[in-house]
Amino acid sequence: LSMNYNQYEHYSVKGGRRAEQVENYRNPSISVKELREITDTVNEYPRFDNFERRVLKIALKEINAHTSFNVSYEKVKKGRSIDSIVFHIEKKRTADDNSYKLEDKDYRFCCEV
Hints:
Structural class: alpha+beta
CATH class: Mainly Alpha
Distance between the termini: 54 Å
Order of helices and strands: HHEHHEEH
Largest sheet: 3 strands, antiparallel
Number of domains: 1
Strand order of the largest sheet: 1-3-2
Mean pLDDT: 85
């Protein structure tokens, strides 16, 4: 997911890709079969609701808590079964923390007087 978002940022600034391709980097679609192979749970959770609850939701909760990304997902159905998952990746906003510079200046003025 991080690699896809980095490609999205690169191509949205540099160009070289169609708008549809750039959005596919930001919202990658992964088939359930491929996702089970990646997570090594091909035979572990035969029902998708168990796979979603025990693998997908826990992983996304950790990603959102410990990385600089907010990731959500959407299930894509083909007939009655879920065929693929579309991930929506956004970068968390971080404010520039320059407060440490202000503290140094205040400290110097305090000590020189």
